[in-house]
Structures are given as structure tokens and as C-alpha cells.
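Researcher: Structure for this, please.
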Amino acid sequence: MTIEEFNIIFKAYRYKLYRYACQFVQQFDAEEIASRTFIKLWEKQPHFNNTTALNEWLYLVTKNHCLDFIKVSSRKRLTDIEGLEIEAENNIPLIELENEVIQAIVKAISKLSPQQKQVFELKYFHQYSVGEISKQLHLSPQTISNILYSAMTKLRGILKHPSLITITCLFIY
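Model: Predicted structure, C-alpha cell format:
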């Protein structure tokens, strides 16, 4: 691939891939992810028979970069939360409250049925859409919605305080 060919592809897809990545991650992260896709295109220089194959490859690589980013940032958030527990002795009491809430949430999620837990984690930890979850688990979108509803109802019952369920979703994001 020549530099001219690369520039044509870059100009044609730069904004499209950025907007696509924005569906998964924050805007400032989407820009970095789109850039990584073009770096991979330049480094790998795959050969495509037509523009449809190129289009599919670019979107797939962008999605994979987004999912990798989400996984890494989820792990980092969990590490940060664990770090809060260590620092709680030296910081404001709010951190202790956050740790208690997080522990209550983790305990409550562990009490969900395996199917509820799987769907809940895909939706809120991995940020999959209901459609993506239904395809992955081979269930209808309505079934996934029903499972999510029953999981949230069960969590509300376990946590026994309606505002904790809202806090659950805030911590997950």
C-alpha cells in the first residue's frame, strides 16, 4: 500500500471510525482507538479484494480495539476501587461508605442466578447492548430484557434500598 492509498483510506474512514468508536467509549478515547486502527492498517497492510472487505476489516478492528479498551479500563477501575480500600484509613469517610456499597453490590450480584449474572455482567460491566447479548446467548431481545428486569428486581430486594441500585449502575459505569 502506498502512502497515497493510505491517505485516501484515512480521509474516507477517519470520521466514520471515530463515530463508530464513540458508540463504545468516550469521545477522547474514540479518537485514540480510531488512530490505533489506522496504525494497524499501515503495519499489517492487509490485501483486500474489494472495498467491502476493507470496510468490514476496519470496523472489526475498531470494535476489537474498543472492547480491549473497555476490558482494560474495567480492570483498572476495579484496581482503583481496591486501592480505595487500602487508602480509606487516611481519607474521608466517604471512601469507607463507597467500599461498603461496593461490597454490598458485589455480594448482591453473586446471589443472582447464573443466567441473570451473565446477562447483567454483559450489559453493565461489558456494556453490550440487549441486541448483542441476545445474539451472543441465542435468546430473543425480549427474553434478555426480561432477565435484566428480574435481575434488577432481585438486586433491589437484596440491597433493600432503592437508591443503592442506582449507585450500582453509577459504579459500574
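Researcher: Any notable elements?
Model: The two ends are 40 Å apart (CA to CA). The chain has two domains: 3-70, 92-172.
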